[in-house]
Amino acid sequence: MASITGMLAYAVPMSCTSSGRPRTSYPASPGGWMGVECSSRPQKKATAHHMKTRPKKTQPWDVRRKGPTAYPPLPGLPPDWTLVPEEEQAAAKKVEEAPATGEE
């Protein structure tokens, strides 16, 4: 990796201001004037770009269109487990244990 001093030694001196006129109000340094040049046409950041280029409603039928249809809420889900009283459990067990005959 190059050192900072090595990079500055090969830097191009800037002798003009951003308006293109020569800089005369400051004394010249041994390496000349160095500065940071910014892009004249910077790119938009992601969100700004998406907001600017998003699809827009231009057709009258589309501009008047309402939002999504509002449906009534769905009923609640049944419980996963149901508690059964012991009497019903005993009766259900008795029915299961009864022999399968034609008579009831």
Automatic annotation (TrEMBL):
Name of the protein in question: 50S ribosomal protein 6, chloroplastic
Residue spans of biased composition, Basic residues class: 42-57
Taxonomic source organism: Ensete ventricosum
Pfam families given in the database record: DUF5323 (PF17257)
Stretch list, region Disordered: 15-80
GO MF annotation list: rRNA binding; structural constituent of ribosome
InterPro entries (UniProt xref): Ribosomal_cL38
GO biological process, one term: translation
Recorded GO CC terms: chloroplast; ribosome
